[in-house]
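pinned: reference chain
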Amino acid sequence: MKYFARVEVKLKPGHSDPEGETTGSLLRELGYKIEEVCVSKVYTILLEAQTHSEARNKTEEMCKRLLANPTKDNYAIFIEEAQ
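pinned: its structure tokens
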């Protein structure tokens, strides 16, 4: 069975986000009343797994091994069956 895994990787609170800070500053200069901009990465992965649980476990392993740095990143995983 095929599944889509969507992984959102964001910086943990307290870590510097220069790209987000610059973008926020520029948006304020353009007149937008915003408080904060945070930059994140989104990975969309099509994978084979027998069950939803297996797809989640494989994606969790991918995050721990490559997609996220546990020292500075938080991540969220969303799994859905491919049609």
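why pinned: The two ends are 10 Å apart (CA to CA). Strands lie at 2-11, 40-48, 73-81.
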